Amino acid sequence: MKTVEFENVVKIYGKGEGKQIAVDHVSFTIEKGEFVVILGQSGAGKSTVLNMLGGMDVPTEGKVIVDGKDISSYSDKQLSEYRADTIGFIFQFYNLLPGLTAYENVALVKDIKKSALSADEMLERVGLADQKNKFPTQMSGGQQQRVSIARALAKDPKIILGDEPTGALDSETGKLVIDLLQKLSTEHGNTVILVTHNADIAKCANRIIHMRNGKIKSVKTNENPLSVNDIDW
């Protein structure tokens, strides 16, 4: 069952001599429950793809279809509702509020989505039940990233999007985060889509979308994804 379809998507910034084609006629599909890596170097267009999928940007041309609905035609209000109901975001630098505890950072999701899941349960799922009363400055980078994952999960999203979620972490902590995200796909049925320049992470994915210069270089289905413990980092 297709969760995501990009149909001949183009994204252009600027006009005239300053025009930049960030995404150039990109097409791909992603199945429900897959763990997908969009791979490429800086400037490849991968984050722009993620932003369009997350409803934070819209294509210049083409369609972005999620669960059979063309979100590229949505109004600003519809996109806001889509982000609240469907998407869980994980960022490179966590984006936690420093004046709130881990629990409070996750519980804030209730302000966005009234049907949000229990902050206590989500922190337990990411292994941080005993850290709930700590503030971000009292936690390691890996712990902060796991709080941000718990926050994303609290929305009970169909799709989890990660923008270089291990980019600020050391290799061992990064492996813990990737292992958690992989299990969200395999054990909980979330569709997880990460952008990264790290080719080793891609070995853990069901599908690898390799981008270069705004175009799709290749799309590979990985029948036997590796455990994160089996890759060199």
UniProtKB/TrEMBL annotation:
CDD domains given in the database record: ABC_MJ0796_LolCDE_FtsE
Domain of life assignment: Bacteria
Domain ABC transporter: 4-231
Pfam family, one: ABC_tran
Name of the protein in question: Putative ABC transport system ATP-binding protein
Keywords: ATP-binding, Nucleotide-binding, Transport
Gene Ontology cellular-component terms listed: membrane protein complex
Cross-referenced InterPro entries: AAA+_ATPase (IPR003593), ABC_transporter-like_ATP-bd (IPR003439), ABC_transporter-like_CS (IPR017871), MacB-like_ATP-bd (IPR017911), P-loop_NTPase (IPR027417)
GO molecular function per UniProt: ATP binding; ATP hydrolysis activity; transmembrane transporter activity
Family from the record: Belongs to the ABC transporter superfamily.
